[in-house]
Amino acid sequence: MADLRGAVALQRHLPNMMGRELRQMAKAKELTITIEDKPGVLGKCFLALAERGVNILAFQSFVEEGESLARIVVDDQAVGKTVLGTLGVIFEETEAAVVKVPHRPGELGRAAAHLGEKGVNIDYSYFGVEPESAQAMLVFGVDNLTVAAAALDEL
Prior knowledge:
CATH superfamily: VC0802-like
């Protein structure tokens, strides 16, 4: 199974009234789902979440050792966990490093390079789009949570 080390969540907030950016550390949860690697299984899982009003804000899926793994960030963690539990899906809840950046070329590279400059190794990453916003949400699984938190807060 994939390395599921947690990560720190950071959220970049909108500019404040003085035109400077206000960054505030926050924690977000990520669900890592392990399901059969068969046609339709992932779709069934995601549709069940949708039927209960859970919005998937970001996701990544891949196959490893014959199982399908999906990492998701949802807008209602409690309901999401209930739905997955009801389906009998194996999942793990971990912390995820999340930084919100403008949705334009170079932002992922800038964030990833900055983490590297601070000595943080990225184990995995993916992104989603902030609902009703022009901001992208970057999610990083990293090897050093403390340094990642400080580094992403500098962006």
